[in-house]
Amino acid sequence: MIHLTIDGIPVEVEKGTTILQAAKQIGVKIPTLCYLENVLPDGSCRLCVVEVTNNGRTKFDTACTLRCSEGDEVQTMSEKVVKYRKETLDLLLSDHRVHCFSCEANGDCKLQDYCFEYGVEKTSFPGEMNNAPIDDTNKFFTYDPSLCILCHRCVNTCKEIVGRGAIDTMNRGFQSVIGAHYKNTWNEGICESCGNCVQACPTGALTMKRRKKYRPYQIDKKVLTTCPHCATGCQYY
Ligand code: FES
To answer: Which of 5, 28, 34, 192 is deepest in the core (most CB within 10 A)?
Structure first.
């Protein structure tokens, strides 16, 4: 067994346990975007960064990929960790078309939730953005690259949970998109439209077509404004 502390709380875990799993064991929450339970960690979003001190040496690493070591002292909300998370969200927003009010995923978007929680309202890195066209070729869902954060939850779900491997990252840089292999559109590949990728998407990049006519209403979500027009509140901020 391995012994460590997380935010000062002692925890004992089996060899091979990640910091994220150890934190979960004692009820410490670490924010994640690309992580999905039962899927190999992707480590692409960097939001789960934590500060780890061991033998007088300190490092910053992603909790979803880092395995626990004997004597680790982990800080999940230190000043630097919070600063790095804010920078990560800032960078993610720099290539994300922000139109939350009219977005299909408004109120059901992990990026929106974390930006709100960490007080990141807009990017400080304006510039070039992904301008790849929307892929609307699938009968049941739509893929919008301008909302995609390339977390690969959809890709890994298709590969590891569904066992289909129908999609992957295509192109490079600002042209990077998720699509069917060999740059085919979604309807030209081997996708069977099971929809598991849509469920895995943490933003509005993949949305079911049937949702288009409705604004998702989830009573457990935050009501951030209330105005005299409807008096029921909305999630715009
Ligand atoms: Fe760990 Fe994305 S959740 S890197």
So the answer is: 34
